[in-house]
Amino acid sequence: MGLQMDAAALNGFLGREFPQVAADFRVERVAENLAELRLIASERNLRPGGTVSGPSMFALADLAIYCAILARIGPVALAVTTNASIDFMRKPAAGVDLLGECRLLKLGRVLAVGDVMIRSEGVDAPVARASMTYSIPPRG
Amino acid sequence: MGLQMDAAALNGFLGREFPQVAADFRVERVAENLAELRLIASERNLRPGGTVSGPSMFALADLAIYCAILARIGPVALAVTTNASIDFMRKPAAGVDLLGECRLLKLGRVLAVGDVMIRSEGVDAPVARASMTYSIPPRG
Amino acid sequence: MGLQMDAAALNGFLGREFPQVAADFRVERVAENLAELRLIASERNLRPGGTVSGPSMFALADLAIYCAILARIGPVALAVTTNASIDFMRKPAAGVDLLGECRLLKLGRVLAVGDVMIRSEGVDAPVARASMTYSIPPRG
Amino acid sequence: MGLQMDAAALNGFLGREFPQVAADFRVERVAENLAELRLIASERNLRPGGTVSGPSMFALADLAIYCAILARIGPVALAVTTNASIDFMRKPAAGVDLLGECRLLKLGRVLAVGDVMIRSEGVDAPVARASMTYSIPPRG
Fold first, then answer.
1. Does domain B7-135 have CATH number 3.90.76.10?
2. Taking a contact as any Cβ pair under 8 Å apart, which residues of chain D between 32 and 91 contact chain B?
3. Among A31, A66, B1, C46, which residue carries the largest CB count within 10 Å?
4. Residues in D touching A87 (Cβ below 8 Å)
5. Is residue B96 a contact partner of residue B121, using CB atoms and an 8 Å limit?
């Protein structure tokens, strides 16, 4: 059960398939059932006060599980989110990148489930925690 | 238990407080425990294929309950999302605005709860459904 | 797109397949994409103070969407819950039955999604609101 | 930030305050921001086929975060669940106890947030994962 894609392959895939979001995110680390992504703090996703917006955190969680799934099954653009549940717990640190670490808890025939812990870089207490479910297309 | 803000007042407030998102959204309708918002389909929030992205739908749901709360309690910038749970059920229609209708189910002393049904304009079957919880600051 | 099972058929099915829970619940009403169930207040599901417990409300929501699905596709015992998200908003009225009304929002090839509004009988303000996702077995 | 209650104190508290559920559950382990509870497999909470029911898993998750909170703040019967989101991922092993391990992610002034991983005893792949939010009464 090796990995089909590593961090470099995932970053290349995101750049080609999702050019409009790839500039804001970077895959940092991939392992069996784990993917860590960085949300780069920039004008585009900061709110007044310098903190990252809720929709940007949603995007980070969504992309983190997507990468954890692709690392296992290879580049399948058609996987889609069916459910996302996010708890926002603390204000992010101002002007700092966010890191989202996804644990893939299930990769079934039709559904994949994972959770994503989001932290401000260098801060231990989590900013948000997301549970994500993806529907994955039939595999040969 | 009248409304503190109508649709025009809410649109003005969003334009002043959240200029970076206000261009994409418009409050269409407000009533007791109800707010309907439009997400204007534009280059910024469309994915390849012309459909609205998940994070943009999250933003629509988040803003819809925020407006339903503000309509009741007046312009309080400090209310924050604590939990969001979204089911994505159908692909949005391509190139069409999305409408999000929030029913405010509870407006308590510290928590407000609502759900938001999201539809492509002119299509009856819902695209997504969100449950949102807000923490609201103490009121005098 | 008529109904495969009405309220009487569903009550019979629950009594045969789930005898250990059927005594606590009754299907009150079924229509296209809608099922209303009653949770009968009894010693078994009341907490000190006479209010219904959280797990019993979970069971009500779970059974309500199950019945809404079966009404459409017929008696398929194998459908299983994959996700449940519940907001508990108000204390139930003491010693009173709860009513759970499920709207079926999607009945797809592999997933069904619905939400359930739970009220104390005779009280308008909702006690809880649940979003439920079921995985349904392949149909011929 | 020491613990206010250990496993023995929590088991005693549950037995006195919630006698109707205490027979099914046992607090196994408590640490800073962590509580592990056992759901004892018995006739009462098994479905045909010998697997634990969804509502029983909900009860396990709910009680696990409650104990993690009480361990930190002491015996406060008034904390109440405001939101629960559960992903059911795999069928529990038949006739086996379930273990639910809660990580307390936030213990704020009014809200506590945690997640609970549920496994069949002796099986590594998780059966379910829950996110729980509790509203906690003002503390002196």
1. no
2. 82-83, 85
3. A66
4. 105, 113, 131, 133
5. yes
